[in-house]
């Protein structure tokens, strides 16, 4: 591994099959007897739903909250669960499943039904968490009731507009599962190598949702550093500083006790400072990963 490229340590989150294999490998490494059948079923359900192959639903259309984002969250969650195990804060079978299935389902509320004729699903930004809970209750009804309850609480805690105490937990493991996934939701996206480019997509989701209050793409970019400071406060305070467990995972998996997620976030923030220090008309020239800018320019042209 190239120590100068922490992004590489985070793996390929575009390939869902590879992500599922990595999740299975991580869980098997610390819980070798764990049956991943239910997690596999959730991967399959999400494949069909996001691809528009689930009866009653359109394919996923949001650009920021896409399949790659879900993949990065479930993979980060698996790494967090491993780190927690190494710290002596492991979970039983039910709560391991709840954390992982909740990670997979945490943004499924952006899906639109066949009856919802307009928009991309971003119009449901404010309500997508509870829409996701409803989706899980409907399509995962064959899960044991206690597991389904835990899974829905995991999803609920990914509403980062609310303090975690808005969810009432039945036990410490249930809370730990939810905190692990909520932490992975924030850290996974900000550590992505294309995070700064994807922020451009996020602007259009906020615009469609009529929330955020950003004047334009540049206003959002200029306020992203402040968003990170607020998010770090949530991670270290409200979510109990769980991200420290990621270094424990990488220590075992790579032999290097480094938090590659935090290193990647730091790199993104350093580059962000360079971008916002550039004149606005030249900023997009510095955001060339993932062909995001080309899509954004086409969206602007159609607007």
Protein traits:
single chain, 303 residues
Structural commentary:
With 303 residues, the protein is mainly α. It has a single domain (6-302), classed as Catalytic domain of cyclic nucleotide phosphodiesterase 4b2b, CATH 1.10.1300. Helix content is 62%, strand content 0%. It contains 14 helices and no strands. It has helices spanning 6-9, 16-30, 37-50, 67-86, 93-105, 128-139, 145-156, 172-190, 195-209, 217-238, 245-254, 260-276, 280-283, 292-302. The protein is globular, with a radius of gyration of 19 Å. It starts with 5 loop residues before the first helix and ends with a helix. The model has no long low-confidence stretch (mean pLDDT 95).
Q: What is the annotated CATH architecture?
A: Orthogonal Bundle
CATH class: Mainly Alpha
Biggest β-sheet: count, sense, barrel? none
Low-confidence stretches: none
What percentage of the residues does DSSP assign to strands (E)? under 5%
The H-and-E topology, N to C, reads as HHHHHHHHHHHHHH
Outline, from the CA principal axes? Answer: globular
Number of alpha- plus pi-helical segments: 14
Mean pLDDT: 95
Number of individual domains: 1
């Amino acid at each position: 591994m190239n120590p100068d490229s922490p992004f590489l340590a985070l793996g390929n989150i575009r390939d869902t099959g590879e992500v599922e294999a990595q999740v299975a490998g991580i869980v098997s490494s610390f819980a070798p007897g764990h049956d991943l059948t239910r997690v596999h079923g959730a991967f399959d359900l999400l494949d069909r739903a996001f691809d528009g192959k689930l009866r009653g639903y359109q394919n996923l259309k949001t650009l920021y909250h896409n399949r790659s984002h879900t993949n990065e969250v479930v993979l980060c969650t698996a790494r967090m669960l491993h780190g927690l195990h190494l710290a002596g804060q492991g979970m039983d079978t039910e709560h391991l499943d709840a954390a992982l299935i909740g990670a997979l389902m945490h943004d499924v509320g952006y899906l639109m039904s066949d009856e919802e004729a307009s928009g991309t699903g971003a119009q449901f930004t404010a309500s997508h968490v509870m829409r996701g809970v409803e989706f899980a209750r409907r399509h995962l009804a064959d899960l044991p009731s206690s597991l389904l309850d835990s899974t829905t609480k995991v999803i609920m805690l990914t509403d980062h507009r609310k303090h975690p105490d808005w969810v009432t937990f039945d036990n410490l493991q249930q809370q730990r599962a939810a905190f692990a996934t909520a932490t992975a939701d924030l850290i996974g996206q900000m550590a992505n190598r294309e995070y700064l480019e994807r922020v451009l997509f996020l602007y259009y989701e906020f615009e469609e949702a009529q929330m955020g209050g950003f004047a334009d793409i540049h206003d959002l970019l200029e306020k992203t550093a402040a968003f990170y400071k607020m998010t770090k406060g949530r991670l270290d305070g409200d979510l109990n500083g769980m991200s420290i467990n990621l270094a424990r995972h990488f220590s075992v998996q790579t032999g290097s006790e480094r938090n590659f997620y935090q290193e990647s976030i730091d790199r993104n923030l350093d580059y962000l400072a360079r971008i916002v220090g550039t004149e606005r008309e030249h900023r997009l020239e510095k955001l060339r990963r993932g062909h995001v800018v080309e899509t954004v320019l086409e969206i602007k042209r159609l607007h």
